[in-house]
């Protein structure tokens, strides 16, 4: 496998009850790249990332991963047990940290260092999502997989998380696979987009994907036109919001 290639999937098929969940899907991910999977609900996005991570076997096709690759996986949002007396710090201590990684340090990096002693059930949706991200990063992954990380997070929290992901990528040099249905925001935080609807509809840089006929057929011409200017406006809005929220 090429040194710059973290993972390579070719003609991946997953079949359940005689129906194709994935039908001959091929993609690859490069070191340091942020790749976003988009598609309608039920399109097979979660199944695909589970196959990429080795959590599910494909019925046919092949997946090659870089030897000794470390994968940090954030599944779709889980809800903490409100009866479980566990702090954020103790939750992270259940994970084996990679050399050089510390619970205190990673909590600071994801922006919840002051919440280390807070009980899980007292965390907001955005805070809990950051905690799950911290758990994945404790392994110092070569590949970070985030399945719908913005679920249950308000708009302000989503903006902050979408800024945080590229910063973590830059600092740790990991590749990122991000699954999202929030196509308005996600285009501003990705290098490459893969659109699937059980099969691979299209892939490429955001500006080309939003003009692809299959993308437009799925999401509508009006949405595609909006996304064409959203990347610029989103970045500008983040800057303006930061100024408004400052001292």
Quick structural gist:
The protein is α/β, with parallel strands linked by helices and 247 residues long. 37% of the residues lie in helices and 24% in strands. A 6-stranded mixed β-sheet has the order 5-6-7-3-8-9, with helices on both faces. A 3-stranded antiparallel β-sheet has the order 2-1-4, with helices on one face.
What does this protein structure show overall?
The protein has 247 residues and is an alpha/beta fold. It has one domain (5-77, 146-245): 3-Layer(aba) Sandwich (Rossmann fold). It is 37% helix and 24% strand. It has nine helices and nine strands. The chain has helices spanning 45-53, 88-92, 103-109, 125-137, 155-172, 183-186, 206-209, 213-219, 221-245, and strands at 5-16, 19-30, 34-38, 60-65, 71-74, 143-147, 175-179, 192-196, 200-204. The strands form two sheets. A six-stranded mixed β-sheet has the order 5-6-7-3-8-9, with helices on both faces. Strand 8 (192-196) and strand 9 (200-204) form a beta hairpin. Helix 3 (103-109) packs across helix 4. It is globular, with a radius of gyration of 18 Å. Mean pLDDT is 85; it is low at 228-247.
User: Helix-strand pattern, N to C?
Assistant: EEEHEEHHHEHEHEEHHH
Structural class by helix and strand composition: alpha/beta
Total of helices: 9
What number is the mean pLDDT? Answer: 85
| Helical fraction | 25-40%
Which residues sit in consecutive blocks of at least 5 with pLDDT less than 50?
228-247
Major sheet attributes:
6 strands, mixed
Shape: globular
Indicate the CATH architecture: 3-Layer(aba) Sandwich
Content of β-strand: 15-25%
- Gyration radius (Cα, Å) is 18 Å
Q: Which homologous superfamily in CATH is the superfamily?
A: P-loop containing nucleotide triphosphate hydrolases
End-to-end Cα distance, whole Å, is 50 Å
Level-1 CATH class name? Alpha Beta
Q: How many domain units?
A: 1
How many DSSP E strands? Answer: 9
The fold-level CATH name is: Rossmann fold
């Amino acid at each position: 496998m090429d040194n710059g290639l973290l993972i390579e999937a070719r003609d991946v098929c997953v079949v359940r009850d005689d129906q194709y969940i994935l039908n001959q899907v091929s993609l690859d991910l490069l070191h340091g790249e942020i790749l976003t999977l988009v598609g309608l609900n039920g399109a097979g996005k979660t199944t695909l990332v589970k196959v990429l991570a080795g959590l599910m076997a494909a019925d046919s096709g092949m997946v090659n991963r870089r030897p000794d690759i470390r994968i940090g996986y954030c599944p779709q949002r889980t809800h903490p047990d409100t009866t479980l007396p566990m702090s954020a710090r103790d939750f992270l201590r259940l994970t084996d940290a990679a050399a050089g990684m510390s619970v205190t340090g990673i909590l600071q990096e994801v922006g919840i260092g002051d919440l280390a002693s807070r009980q899980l059930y007292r965390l907001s949706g955005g805070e809990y999502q950051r905690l799950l991200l911290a758990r994945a990063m404790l392994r110092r992954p070569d590949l970070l997989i985030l399945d719908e990380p913005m679920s249950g997070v308000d708009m302000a929290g989503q903006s902050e998380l979408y800024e945080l992901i590229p910063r973590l990528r830059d600092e740790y040099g990991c590749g990122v696979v991000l699954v999202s249905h929030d196509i308005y925001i996600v285009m501003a935080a990705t290098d490459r987009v893969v659109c699937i609807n059980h099969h691979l509809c299209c892939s490429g840089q955001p500006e080309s994907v939003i003009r692809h006929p299959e993308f437009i057929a799925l999401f509508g011409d009006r949405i595609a036109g909006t996304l064409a200017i959203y990347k610029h406006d989103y970045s500008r809005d983040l800057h303006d919001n930061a100024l408004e929220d400052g001292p």
